[in-house]
Write a structure and sequence with these properties.
The chain is 31% helix and 32% strand. It is of the alpha+beta class and 301 residues long. The strands form 2 sheets. Strands 1, 2, 3, 4, 5, 6, 8, 9, 13 and 16 form a 10-stranded mixed β-sheet that branches. The chain has a 6-stranded antiparallel β-sheet with strand order 12-11-10-7-14-15. Helix 3 links the parallel strand 3 and strand 4. Bound molecules: adenosine-5'-triphosphate.
Length: 301
């Protein structure tokens, strides 16, 4: 059985590259025939993965973080070809939501076992235009921070993100966002809006705690106007999803979410998707995964 493998050299500050040989060895010893797809950018990875799927690969295995999975998603979603994950990024929110074993050897064994047994899980996927995503599409404060962090050349790693948070806090103000959720229109001042297929984003923040990637619906978390202090105080509550109890936070469920507002870019799976306005559609069963141990609403499992 031929399996295409994406190894993102940059992911996890070199962790994915360091794991490449181990992953290939484990795949071979499970009786599979892996081929590493040579790619140095996300766009190249998408092109190679699409060709591998068209060529009949039994699965695409993404060794990296959410950005690597996002590249693989563009090739597999809607095709029935399964995605396997080996978590090796700084953010592994999709692997977390699906219960993929954190230990790489165990992750490879789990996905190889499913492939050999012909077992896979069907999950919903988010779509904006022709872009697929699997975790959370966000806009507002959080996407401005990600945008800013990507423009900063210094410092490296987590501290770049922390600096971006400080810079964006300094210019914090809510935007008027219009949401149309399954036809119902609301215009609200929002600090941020998160459209969740799964619960986590940003490397383990449970922004949409009730999101179930197998229910055909998004969970939409809308955070209303917050002061700087309130936003800082809300951050730890994101780690366990208790922010949704705050009176400033509203949660909705919908299969189709239109978002419009001024000068805001949406991000999903840690990657830029499109500037507003966008229409996000939840496409039931569009994504097939192997090696997942949980796919029915992570926080309830
Ligand atoms: N096969 C590949 N080769 C090179 N780059 C890739 C490949 N696949 C994806 N990428 C790109 O590498 C970047 C980092 O990948 P990823 O998000 O998986 O790792 P990460 O450690 O979580 O990174 P970050 O925290 O910077 O998002 C993404 O922007 C992605 O598009």
């Amino acid at each position: 059985m031929d399996v295409a493998v994406l190894v993102s050299a940059a992911a996890g500050r070199g962790r994915a590259r360091a794991l490449g040989d181990t992953v290939l060895r484990e795949l071979r010893s499970a009786g599979l025939t892996p081929t590493v797809l040579a790619a140095t950018t996300g766009a190249e990875a998408e092109t190679r993965a699409r060709a591998a799927v068209a060529g009949g690969a039994a699965a695409v295995v993404a060794v990296g973080g959410d950005g690597t999975a996002h590249a693989a998603l563009q090739a597999v979603t809607g095709t029935g070809t399964p995605l396997g994950l080996v978590a090796a990024g700084t953010g592994n929110d999709l692997a977390l939501a699906l219960g993929v074993p954190a230990e790489p050897t165990a992750a490879v064994r789990a996905l190889a076992g499913d492939l050999r047994a012909g077992e896979a899980r069907s999950l919903d996927a988010g779509r904006v235009g022709d872009r697929w995503w699997a975790t959370v599409l966000c806009c507002g404060f959080d996407s401005a921070v990600t945008d800013r962090a990507n423009r900063l050349r210094w410092p490296r790693g987590r501290r770049r993100y922390d600096l971006a948070v400080l810079l964006e806090l300094a210019r914090l103000r809510p935007n008027e966002i219009t949401l149309v959720m399954d036809g119902e229109v609301r215009t609200v001042p929002a600090t941020m809006v998160a459209v969740g297929n799964t619960a986590w984003y940003g490397g383990g923040l449970e922004i949409c705690p009730g999101a179930d990637p197998a229910d055909g619906l998004f969970d939409v978390t809308v955070v209303g106007p917050l002061t700087r202090l309130e936003l800082i105080q809300a951050r730890p509550r994101l780690a366990d999803g208790t922010h949704v109890e705050s009176p400033s936070v509203s949660v909705f469920r919908a299969a189709r979410v239109e978002l419009s507002g001024p000068g805001v870019t949406t991000w999903a799976d840690g990657e830029p998707v499109a500037p507003l306005p966008v229409v996000a559609e939840c496409v039931p069963g569009a994504l097939t995964v192997v090696g997942a141990r949980r796919a029915d609403g992570a926080s309830r499992a």
